Amino acid sequence: MSTILRNAALGAVMTAMLGACATQPEKSAVPVAPAAAPATADADAPWKAQAALPHRSLASFAKPSNEQACYDRKKEPYTPVVDAHFHPRPFGGQAIPPQELFEYFDKLGVRFVNYFGIGQSLDMRSACTYYLDCPGTSALPSIKNDFVNGQETKAYPHPNLNITLSMTFMDLAHPEDIVKTIELYDREFPGMFKWSGELNVFKQALVPNKHEPATIASIDAWAPFMKVLRERGIPVTLHMDLGSDAEPTRNVYLMKHILEKYPDNKIVWAHAGLSKELQHMDPALHVRLMAEAFALSKNLMLDISWDVLYNAYHEFGPQFIAFFNVYPDRILPGSDFVAARNKGFEQYAKEFEVTSRALKFLSDDAFRKIALGENYFRLMNLDYQAPEICK
């Protein structure tokens, strides 16, 4: 079985560290382990409760932390102010209009959002909206969605929302022309695209739609465009399935190679490596693999987007809450919502709340850094500050 770093000593340290964190939380922390969710006839009650709470303005985060009102976790939402993994364009078909999306963000207190393509566009001859509904139809990297995002962001500015545009066109199995295409973006959208991804290293679900996974050789050939990203301080979000239920760590060697090859790049591992094909992983193994990945690169972060994480781990157990508290600087929140026109506000609100449930059990320090945006601001060198937590 492959692992990122076969290091028994690190495993022992992590076991001790997580055990201490799980049994001796900070005085300022909320409970480490989530309690079982009460039965309710209203499945919408959680997101409705969060949406009804007061939300802070974008302008408030521009003030120094000590000039902002402290954040009262008992009276303000546990949902984050950042959605660092959002897809305003679907794989195919119509998208939710930008003005409508802005209303969604405003209702839920989202003030910072990453616009991720999607980079894999379905064949224009297809009537499909979602790739899983049409196996055999190509869903391949394209510039189409990025260009629409760039145009709409310019055409529809919003004073209460900070949008980060992301380049999602990159074909990681065939990286030869990526630098030239970045130069095209520079000409068409000067200074506007400051993130890269979500890019697929290996996404098993897309293989029936002609997705070609990256290899060790193609990863080595990323060097020219990774140099551009590194010099510009542009983070890259990578989708890299750890494996499947049959082979949970089958692809881990690929991420190990990426981190060893590009340790100075800002890399975000999407969904902490989980997928619908891997929903029965031993939580202890998962946590250990993520800790070992952190040891390989000081610049690696995880995003905990997509409800597949919640569904796989049933509200996250104490091992994950402890892990987030041990590594509060290395986690980003996100929904992974895909804004197809056949969806609406309630679906986004549900997905946003579900992917945020772990946040309510974090220590104050971890909550401030993850949910209130401090990690995101630091990663992006943004002139914003998270408020302090009320004591």
Task: Walk me through the structure.
With 391 residues, this protein is α/β, with parallel strands linked by helices. It is built from 14 helices and eleven strands. A nine-stranded parallel β-sheet has the order 10-9-8-7-6-5-2-1-11, sandwiched between helices. Strand 5, helix 5 and strand 6 form a beta-alpha-beta unit. The N terminus is likely disordered.
Adjacency order of strands in the biggest sheet: 10-9-8-7-6-5-2-1-11
Q: Terminal Cα separation, in Å? A: 46 Å
Beta-strand percentage range: 5-15%
Number of strands: 11
Q: What's the pLDDT, averaged over the residues?
A: 87
Short summary:
The chain has 14 helices and eleven strands.
SSE layout and pairing:
Blueprint: H1 8-23, H2 45-52, E1 82-87, H3 98-108, E2 112-115, E3 120-122, E4 139-141, H4 144-155, E5 162-167, H5 178-188, E6 193-202, H6 216-220, H7 223-232, E7 236-240, H8 252-261, E8 267-269, H9 283-296, E9 300-303, H10 308-313, H11 318-326, E10 331-332, E11 337-338, H12 345-354, H13 364-370, H14 374-380
Parallel strand pairs: 1-2, 1-11, 2-5, 5-6, 6-7, 7-8, 8-9, 9-10
Antiparallel strand pairs: 3-4
Helix pairs in contact: 1-11, 2-12
